[in-house]
Amino acid sequence: MAKVIQSIRGMHDILPDQSASWLHLENTIRELFTQYGYRELRTPVLESTDLFCRSIGEVTDIVEKEMYTFDDRNGDSLTLRPECTASCVRAGIQHGLMYNQQQRIWYIGPMFRHERPQKGRYRQFYQAGIETFGIAGPDIDAEVIAISARLWKRLGLKNVELQINSLGSSEARAKYRDVLVAYFEQHEALLDEDSKRRMKTNPLRVLDSKNPAMQEMIEAAPQLLNHLDEESQIHFDRLKELLEEMEIDYVVNPRLVRGLDYYCRSVFEWVTTELGTQGTICAGGRYDGLVEQLGGKPNTGLGFAMGLERILLLLEEQGIETPDFAPNIYVVTQGSDAEKAGLKITENLRDALPNLRITNNCGGGSFKAQMKRADKSGATYAIILGDNELTEKVVSLKPLRLKSEQSQVSFDDLASHLATIDFDGE
């Protein structure tokens, strides 16, 4: 017997019983982003390794430890994308999307990181996000945050907190870096090995450490908010005003630095305490220097990414039911003539009522077996068609989820009758 081949560790199948929740979430995201005037951009999952080294930073954990990188037959170094912002910028530069014009785009799809799989964190995972280019003011920062806030409302999510911070300009951050390094050098005995290495390459990342033994020292470290340049301070103050005007609650978290090198000025995260240590479900910020860093003309950028697995986990944790997309109608037929007529009737119904979900019984079976399939499908009603119904040109309409009587409806009146039924309400 041949060995059973299984999926790669940390890369999971999404089974039919799970996919309805995914579809609901993805449809909600697509509808919301489109309503705000954003357009979809689809990029390849495979990119040049240099793209991520130049954008994310060579001394980040993602580049150092987590990327799926290999050389192809031509000797080129390729990487499965660990995130999508760099890919969106690359596409914008390559195709001239962002020159002398504003761009509002969104994406959705799989990302890849070779890290330890755990609940809500996988080696192939899915993200949806927004990227904007060519808009420098804090009004777009507020809009992007408002989109994410509205998504939680539409999904019914509760107990998510918005945390914001400003990283200032690159010049202000360079001066702050010197102050921070001096502070860490005074407390070097408290630093773990990873933080000692980061202190020399990217000291702001030390602030992001989750090491419990270092938290008191980190809390006492100088704050970047006290070292902002004037323009960044004005930008951040205006962002807070706009959020307050829209009645979006926020908390200023001076330790929020984000894990990627390209961020500047506004950064934010939506966090929850209901998913353990993996509490961030959406994060983003401004990256005004990234376009130029990747070879384009100077331009502003801002966006966010959200982990779909974590959002689905939170929906489940909060007991929020999502549509199961079960069929509205399951068609049961008896005999070859009824089977033939049933196919024609259902195709006509799909023409007349395109939103109706109809499943035809296939593969034959007794009446009892077909009714079992109908019930197992989750359908609201069964349409029953046999010799008697064919003779009288009617169908029997049997409720499967309601305590009401079976009725008969003529072929001619069937579409109009079904149009009066609120399947979703039932």
Topology of helices and strands:
Elements: H1 16-35, E1 39-40, E2 46-48, H2 49-56, H3 61-66, E3 69-71, E4 77-80, H4 85-94, E5 103-112, E6 124-133, H5 138-155, E7 161-166, H6 170-186, H7 193-201, H8 215-219, H9 230-245, E8 251-252, E9 264-271, E10 280-286, H10 290-293, E11 301-307, H11 308-317, E12 329-333, H12 336-352, E13 358-360, H13 367-377, E14 381-385, H14 387-392, E15 394-399, E16 407-410, H15 414-419
Helix pairs in contact: 1-5, 5-9
Describe the overall structure.
The chain has helices at residues 16-35, 49-56, 61-66, 85-94, 138-155, 170-186, 193-201, 215-219, 230-245, 290-293, 308-317, 336-352, 367-377, 387-392, 414-419; strands at residues 39-40, 46-48, 69-71, 77-80, 103-112, 124-133, 161-166, 251-252, 264-271, 280-286, 301-307, 329-333, 358-360, 381-385, 394-399, 407-410. It is an alpha+beta fold and 426 residues long. The strands form three sheets. It has an eight-stranded mixed sheet with strand order 1-5-6-11-10-9-7-8. It has a five-stranded mixed sheet with strand order 13-12-14-15-16, sandwiched between helices. β12 (329-333), α12 (336-352) and β13 form a beta-alpha-beta unit. α5 packs parallel to α9 (230-245). It is elongated and about 90 Å long. The protein starts with 15 loop residues before the first helix and ends in a 7-residue tail after the last helix. The model has no long low-confidence stretch (mean pLDDT 88).
